[in-house]
Design brief:
It is a single chain. The chain has one domain: Aldolase class I (TIM Barrel, Alpha-Beta Barrel). Strands 1-2-3-4-5-6-7-8 form an 8-stranded parallel β-barrel, surrounded by 6 helices. The chain is α/β, with parallel strands linked by helices. The protein contains 8 helices and 8 strands, in the order βαβαβαβαβαβαβαβα. Pfam families: TMP-TENI. Pathway: Cofactor biosynthesis; thiamine diphosphate biosynthesis; thiamine phosphate from 4-amino-2-methyl-5-diphosphomethylpyrimidine and 4-methyl-5-(2-phosphoethyl)-thiazole: step 1/1.
Length: 211
């Protein structure tokens, strides 16, 4: 049984993190309570993803936070990451699972009730559901679903879920009320003057919401 905590899922953005870098942002955020860190860099080739991923793996070692690589299965394998996250337009879930083996966490983005209901729990470990709101960090995103849509997708999805898309500390209670296991954030931590404090603020609200 894979152990992972979706509650505060940080998606790194190289542009927003440029001030202190993705590795330092991740270290600080995990110190503040982030439970998962996803390396997402649409402009990096596999070699650069591996370089950054190995640095992230080193700073996250011993923290209990999982390192997930977005899209790049070769990088995820080379890094020895805890997991891989794919979208609907990337490598298919079955093909991804065959590449990464049975032990690595596999996440899949879903944007509709049909896609959420179709997730195969024998292959996929969690679903990223959204976008809840429009977000500038992913300009090509699908139509926002709002919290009502989030609740509907969570209800039909057979695996644990994390909400994504324009989410901040003020949205924590609504995310958990919709039944999601956590929220994925980008700008709420990346690019802030103090990522550790930003993560701690969100983690504190999560603890209260889960009571």
């Amino acid at each position: 049984m894979k152990q992972f905590d979706l509650s505060l899922y940080l998606v790194l953005d190289p542009d927003l993190c440029a001030g202190i870098g993705m590795v330092e942002t991740a270290r600080a955020a995990v110190a503040g309570g982030a439970t998962i860190v996803q390396l997402r860099d649409k402009h990096a080739d596999t070699a650069r993803m591996i370089e950054t991923g190995l640095a992230l793996k080193a700073v996250l070692s011993g923290t209990g936070a999982a390192l997930i690589v977005n899209d790049d299965v070769d990088a995820a394998i080379a890094i020895g990451a805890d997991g891989l996250h794919i979208g609907q337009d990337d490598l298919g879930a079955l093909a991804a699972r065959e590449r990464i083996g049975p032990d690595m966490i596999l996440g899949l983005s879903v944007e509709t009730e049909a896609l959420a209901a179709a997730v195969n729990p024998d292959i996929v470990d969690y679903a990223g559901i959204g976008p809840v709101f429009a977000t500038a960090t992913k300009p090509d995103h699908k139509q926002p679903i709002g919290f009502d849509g989030l609740a509907r997708l969570v209800d039909v999805c057979p695996v644990p879920s994390v909400a994504i898309g324009g989410l901040k500390a003020t949205h924590v209670r609504d995310v958990f009320a919709a039944g999601a296991g956590g929220l994925a954030v980008v700008s709420a931590i990346c690019g802030t003057s103090d990522p550790e404090a930003a993560a701690r603020d969100i983690a504190d609200i999560i603890r209260k919401a889960r009571r």
